Amino acid sequence: xxxxxxxxxxxxxxxxxxxxxxxxxxxxxxxxxxxxxxxxxxxxxxxxxxxxxxxxxxxxxxxxxxxxxxxxxxxxxxxxxxxxxxxxxxxxxxxxxxxxxxxxxxxxxxxxxxxxxxxxxxxxxxxxxxxxxxxxxxxxxxxxxxxxxxxxxxxxxxxxxxxxxxxxxxxxxxxxxxxxxxxxxxxxxxxxxxxxxxxxxxxxxxxxxxxxxxxxxxxxxxxxxxxxxxxxxxxxxxxxxxxxxxxxxxxxxxxxxxxxxxxxxxxxxxxxxxxxxxxxxxxxxxxxxxxxxxxxxxxxxxxxxxxxxxxxxxxxxxxxxxxxxxxxxxxxxxxxxxxxxxxxxxxxxxxxxxxxxxxxxxxxxxxxxxxxxxxxxxxxxxxxxxxxxxxxxxxxxxxxxxxxxxxxxxxxxxxxxxxxxxxxxxxxxxxxxxxxxxxxxxxxxxxxxxxxxxxxxxxxxxxxxxxxxxxxxxxxxxxxxxxxxxxxxxxxxxxxxxxxxxxxxxxxxxxxxxxxxxxxxxxxxxxxxxxxxxxxxxxxxxxxxxxxxxxxxxxxxxxxxxxxxxxxxxxxxxxxxxxxxxxxxxxxxxxxxxxxxxxxxxxxxxxxx
Amino acid sequence: xxxxxxxxxxxxxxxxxxxxxxxxxxxxxxxxxxxxxxxxxxxxxxxxxxxxxxxxxxxxxxxxxxxxxxxxxxxxxxxxxxxxxxxxxxxxxxxxxxxxxxxxxxxxxxxxxxxxxxxxxxxxxxxxxxxxxxxxxxxxxxxxxxxxxxxxxxxxxxxxxxxxxxxxxxxxxxxxxxxxxxxxxxxxxxxxxxxxxxxxxxxxxxxxxxxxxxxxxxxxxxxxxxxxxxxxxxxxxxxxxxxxxxxxxxxxxxxxxxxxxxxxxxxxxxxxxxxxxxxxxxxxxxxxxxxxxxxxxxxxxxxxxxxxxxxxxxxxxxxxxxxxxxxxxxxxxxxxxxxxxxxxxxxxxxx
Lengths: 609, 351
Known about the structure:
The complex is a heterodimer of chains A (609) and B (351).
Chain A: E1 3-4, E2 6-14, H1 19-32, E3 37-42, E4 51-59, E5 70-75, H2 81-86, E6 88-97, E7 112-116, H3 118-125, H4 129-147, H5 152-163, H6 167-187, E8 194-195, E9 205-209, H7 210-221, E10 225-228, H8 235-248, E11 260-263, H9 267-279, E12 284-288, H10 290-306, E13 310-316, H11 333-337, E14 347-349, H12 354-371, E15 374-380, H13 381-385, E16 387-391, H14 409-414, E17 444-446, H15 460-476, E18 485-487, E19 494-499, H16 503-515, E20 520-525, E21 527-528, H17 532-540, E22 544-548, H18 554-562, E23 570-574, H19 583-599, H20 602-608
Parallel strand pairs in A: 1-8, 2-5, 5-6, 6-7, 10-11, 10-12, 12-13, 13-15, 14-15, 19-20, 19-22, 22-23
Antiparallel strand pairs in A: 2-4, 3-4, 9-16, 14-21, 18-20
Helix pairs in contact in A: 1-4, 1-5, 3-4, 4-6, 5-6, 7-8, 7-12, 9-10, 16-19
Chain B: H1 38-52, E1 60-64, H2 68-71, E2 81-84, H3 90-100, E3 105-111, H4 112-116, H5 120-129, E4 133-139, E5 142-143, E6 149-150, H6 173-180, E7 184-189, H7 193-205, E8 209-215, H8 231-237, E9 238-240, E10 243-247, E11 264-266, E12 272-277, H9 287-299, E13 303-310, H10 317-321, H11 333-336, H12 339-346
Parallel strand pairs in B: 1-2, 1-3, 3-4, 4-8, 7-8, 9-13
Antiparallel strand pairs in B: 5-6, 7-13, 10-12, 11-12
Helix pairs in contact in B: 1-7, 3-5, 6-9
């Protein structure tokens, strides 16, 4: 049976051998053929020699979550050969390098083995040892182009775009591609029963990773100061920010830089720089991952208490401690919500894809300055480092940054006297002043106890007055964070709640369940403090499954703590092994819980959860 | 001395600076430090220094960490924004503020605990970055607010108030600064205002980080016999290694100053630091020689003071980053946002 534009392949490689560019080329070719496609890079925390996988899911219906069910395995890593072959579905295919004979133990009766003498062909056609290794990847790309019916003109065009300026490389790559293609055409029945055919689903789409989109959002928001420390998987936010600044932020006349890019000595300093710059009136941000947030906790509390804007991008990875730096998770939710010692609460934004990374990055700066407080943009490795197909990013030239209440020199001259924390507006925010503007606006910023005028205090009532206002200010932010996305299904009595990068798997799971006659309403939380709609949605459901990628059900905990919903109503579906979520995991989790729910008394389910 | 209120009336005979301001305009809140604290003398020197320089108060940025020293920015230039941050984190806060607004005259006040222990990393890196600021360490060898523990600058053998002798080797900020590439290094004594004021002024005019270590005795916890940071000990062992005059601006009076050789160093704005005396063979622009000189004297128990090292040709943080002259914080948004058409064409790169 032929399947068009609906299959999944997995490529098993050794990292550091140049497979990433070949795999990217493969995915981009499919994208240019107008087909909905999703790529997931499952890579090790290593420079060279360890196993690395790349998965491509082709879905005419636009499903982009991990497939877990592979039609074709490109098995290029001897270390993992055994388990890689095992992951291929019955009736699937394995592409391997037949330069060396396949060990008998590795044969499987239910899959078809496609041997291509890649190493031999490389050795026969290319001289240099490193070139031979690198071109092996392009060669199997050629083979796949034939097997999967890719448009060779598009593949060739992409190679030209990559190596156009280096004729020798262009020639070698083109040759390797053609050799792989010709071998497949001569030796196999092409195309395979599952393959690609041109569509027109991508005319308004782009292929972009979340970190690049986040950086672009920071540029468009007008951020001028970046303070950061290298850390996987957040580093590419700053790599992208720097390169966008080099492109867009050099003064056309003086050739001077309209930005400051500060690689700090550690995350303690990175957040300090952000706070100092925001205090002085620049839009400023940092990007980091969980270990960096742990270090930043100290000064996050200072920014919260002294009411200084700060935008913190947390591209989450698996914890605790060093954890698995190149694997994804959503395990910093509680850490960020309550970061730092003492009573603190922070604004969180949860993008679910690169397009939202762009939008929410801009909104982070507006919220941070409107509420004069740290704002966390909680992305993750899956969103941040994988290429996603999303709508083209849009910009409205009418956008004006919300700088919050900042007094000008003239406004200060009109005042009898200026006090930093009084009077406050309807959102419990007081006007701030910037250094270098007017001596009348001067004040002494302190993380020590202060009263509503900004003066030092150790008096309980004065201290509490400020702390109580900070709580009211936090609550007021609920109506300004991105509202939850809610989707109702006819006849549904229960809900599924998710956050961030779980979105695609949940939406697909809901469709699968619907096919089985199980109807589920859906809510994706996009901000904290939670808007009214979050509590209302949960109250309307008999119960809700909370799908998230951490062990302890952190979103569920936050919902229980910060809304009035009974905790018995919330049941966790968790995935926290470090790979992106698949719809199958969600469906299986729900089916399992449903079976249990029917057979066990209700209160026991509640206790278990 | 918080119990004494400052007089509200200004004496009519008080002199005015070029901005028409008396020294009172550069004062701050009443100090809450112990009577006789060396830090209050440093505060007084800062007030005098900025008044003489006729700096507009609102163009000054005051930064500090945590500790007795870090409280002092409230006590000077009330018309300037101040930031009393977290323990050891002043350098990062000042770096961010300096990055955002390069037109501020940044004064960082730190202590030996704040800079040489918890903040050693940040101090080291702000020196490397050569942020344009005056970085004053009010150095008393002891933790005051927590009642008398040794700090990292306490000398071996120096005794605590309870009689216990310190046995771990000290970190000397001058030697550290020299090794980290600091471009302006001075040491002074809180009891020597005549030396300290011109050092602060020259530090403010220096294009980069001016590290000024000020021995500033703690009258409550470290002013006893056996302490090497007491008033008595410091007066006996401190000596002015270099003597220098700071001459503001390049007016007629300074036109005659010899600017070649070692006698004078022209600061960034044309002001001149004139060395009136240096030891034989001493070259305040030769890092290695200064290092040996300071180290030899310290090992003999002597504390050389004055402007010890200067490299006025150095590039500050903004020079290195090639940042625009306009403070980033004041750049209009439309110069920062590339706009819709740029985004639309950029999207083609992601196809």
